[in-house]
Write a structure and sequence with these properties.
- It is a single chain.
- This protein is an alpha+beta fold and 175 residues long.
- It contains four helices and seven strands, in the order ββαααβββββα.
- It is 29% helix and 23% strand.
- Strands 1, 2, 3, 4, 5, 6 and 7 form a seven-stranded antiparallel sheet that branches.
- It has one domain.
- Helix 2 runs antiparallel to helix 3 and helix 2 runs parallel beside helix 4.
Length: 175
């Protein structure tokens, strides 16, 4: 694991300086996950355009890991209220650690096993101290595993935004 400075590097800057070789089979997966986190997750977590810009500007790669010979980021997304998400995707699954100043009370509808302890060895690239226990044991700090692809990650953040942050849909309907 390589840590990208202590505070991390802006995600876009990290992405541009760590582009994979054209010869790698999974090179497209590199940009797919970076663009997805940057462009699909950020809007879910912001209540206003200003908040959106702040979250996106603050997205960082705080570390890195390698999967399928591609060097990939460990993402860090922080919200104004102090909630922080650390996550990585290795083409097999997403690992997400949540650290929140308040209990995360939400019905995640079976997206993950709330009792599962995700061992730090499976959180490739996570800096020390950012892998927590199960959601069922501590609703302020927990680490979860989500299946391959982006649908489960998007749904996790959609539920978090609506049920925890109280963000309303554009038409005014809440979760």
């Amino acid at each position: 694991m390589t840590t990208t400075q202590e505070t991390g590097m802006r995600l876009q800057e990290w992405a541009e300086t760590h582009q994979p070789a054209e010869t790698l089979i999974y090179k497209n997966g590199y940009w797919d996950q970076i663009i997805f986190v940057r462009d699909a997750i950020t809007p879910l977590l912001a209540k206003t355009d200003e908040e959106y810009k702040e979250i996106q500007a603050g997205m960082k790669a705080i570390s890195e890991h390698t999967s399928k010979s591609v060097r990939l980021p460990v993402f860090r997304v922080e919200l104004a209220d102090g909630t922080a998400f650390t996550m990585r995707y290795n083409f097999y699954d997403w690992k997400v650690s949540v650290s929140s100043p308040r209990d995360v009370e939400a019905d995640f509808m079976g997206l993950f096993n709330p009792n599962e302890h995700v061992h730090e060895v499976y959180c490739e690239g996570f800096p020390k101290g950012l892998v927590y226990g199960p959601y069922a044991e501590n609703k302020r700090q927990f680490t979860i595993e989500l299946p391959s692809g982006n649908y489960h990650l998007f749904t996790f953040f959609w539920i978090f935004a609506h049920q925890v942050l109280g963000i309303q849909n554009k038409d005014g309907r809440g979760a």
